[in-house]
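Because showing beats explaining, we think one record worth quoting, sequence and backbone structure tokens together, and here it is:
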Amino acid sequence: MKISGVDIRPGNILEYEGGIWKVAKTQHTQPGKGGAFMQVEMKNLIDGRKTNVRFRSADTVEKVRLDTKDFQYLYADGDQLVFMDKDTYEQLQLPADLLGDAAAFLQDGMEVMLELYEERPISVELPEQVEATIVEADAVVKGQTASSSYKPAILDNGVRVMVPPHIESGTRIIVDVYAREYVRKAD
């Protein structure tokens, strides 16, 4: 589906110069002289390159629709991650760097969403929030107020997050995967 250069929005997937790009940021500019344009920051979903492109309103670009499919994470095999298609039980190996920092939050049996372009996986989306256990938490400093101070803690997957002072080692918490922030205590 072709769209005008000024209709590009963050999150759009575009086909541009033979690659598949995800739009990260857009800025609409209307200079005093000349036509309006859209400054677009994009990331290539195949090789990870980033670029800035200026699209005028007369320019058209192909908007790509990705297919999504439910998969289940099974295990890590070196730097490869093994996922299983929940419909066909077919297994698929993907490089760990496809997930970036979110890979640390993968748990055995976790359900994930794969985005596919022409049957080729180009991104893996984890649940927004996961449950994790605190393995190490700093002691509370006397005199700190509970409302404003957070202390560092390390989760069972090695990720460091800031938690409220009342959270201790061994506590199960809910963590935002992409912001890497404490959400609440697990039930």
